[in-house]
Amino acid sequence: MARVVVVGAGMGGMAAAARLAVKRHQVTVVEQAATYGGKLGSFERDGFVFDTGPSLLTIPAVYRDLFNKTGGPLEGAVGELVDLDPAFGYRFPDGVTVDMPGVDPGVCAHVLGQALGGTAEADWRAFMARAASIWQVTRRPFLEAPLTGARDLLPLARNLGDVRTVAPFTSLRGLARHYLSDPRLRMLVDRYATYTGSDPRRAPAALATVPYVEQMFGAYHVAGGIRKLADALYERTLERGVAYRFSADVAEVLTTDAGVTGVRLGDGEVLEADVVVANADATHLYRDLLHDPRGAEPLKRLRRTTPSLSGFVLLLAVKGRTPGLRHHNVWFTGDYDAEFDSIFGRDAKPVHDPTIYVCAPDDDAMRPDADHESWFVLVNAPRHGTTGERGTVDWTAPGLAEPYRDRVLQVMADRGYDVRDRLLWSEVRTPADLEAGTRAPGGSIYGTSSNGARAAFLRPANASPVPGLYLVGGSSHPGGGLPLVGMSAEIVADLIGRA
Q1: Within a domain: residue 276?
Q2: What start and end residues bound the annotated signal peptide (predicted)?
Q3: Which of 188, 258, 400, 461 is the most core-located residue (most Cβ within 10 A)?
Q4: Dist. CA 432–CA 43, nearest whole Å
């Protein structure tokens, strides 16, 4: 039995803690905030409830496996998993709308064909077939196993057919152009790059697996909000004997030549450990917490990456019901390239005409009554920064956040969803707020982006160069999002079991 300290009570940290606890390790989770969940947060006011982080659950099998192996079924812990159908309401710049089914790529292709006409149905079927092939080739080496560098993929490289399938030097945008003649379908694919905080013009073709997974395995809501998943996981860890220290800031991961020895808190207290699992942002870990020369190489690699985009969020308490509003809504900009240039270009700035995502669950537990709606509004945004670093905006600058809120509300009105005269109140969350709340540098949602062919190999490995120090969560392998974070916890628990 090892003494394990987990730094951070996000979903990755709690999932790793649960898996390690059932293996009879002594686990303590240390969290700088006053509560658990990390980016999987919630906000409540006047009976309105908002998920302030992930708002969609895909590949629920990841969490079914986690809960089954730590004491009981997922549904017994969270209550009802709601299979969304339709899952998304899309509005394209020409005004055409599509209600996307929640599952089955073939059905989705038919719906797209009916709405868009031409060869849209056949094109989407062909694109999904290619995505399915990429998924089969990459699922094990890229998602379910540790990845420390390009050499781990040598078996894949020996099969030229697999290499052609994955197309490692083709962008997601390039793959979409090969299969999809309708620019609206290509716009739909572009959106999936933002699931990893990336630019579709630079993100790899392998991200075609993201829409495939969504349509193949379904899109789910947890009754009462996705935050209920964090509540259930926290309770499961308590049942397994995991201890928590909240409002306890880790100042340093302590090491010797032999490996980690524990952590030092901000007040000077030392927690001794045989194993440290960092659910902190990888850049924060290697730059600020690990004062060990063995962390220099991972930090050097991180500095060669492009950080992921951030998000500007509005929480809107809306009076009345909105015809045609779906659980998930995406209203596209007329110029997606301008949006990505505003975020990733040399002259970063708030996007003037952004794509707008709205999550408005038809869930009575998330609103005061059936005559109101809770709108979580998200637009892609540059990271926060105060030193003029490329790709950043000072979101704390006077006169920026509130006028930009008004701009987003105007864009929503221009696209047919004017709620300004129905607002009871609103809350604004900027990338600076995200950075302050989660210690994610600049408010980067996913740590590093997937921009560039080598991005997967620059993402920090789960096993650090320091014996006994492991990384879990969205900023380490295999990446961000609830399913991948859950997979990273399983990888880390297995690695510790082998050590």
Answers
A1: yes
A2: none
A3: 188
A4: 17
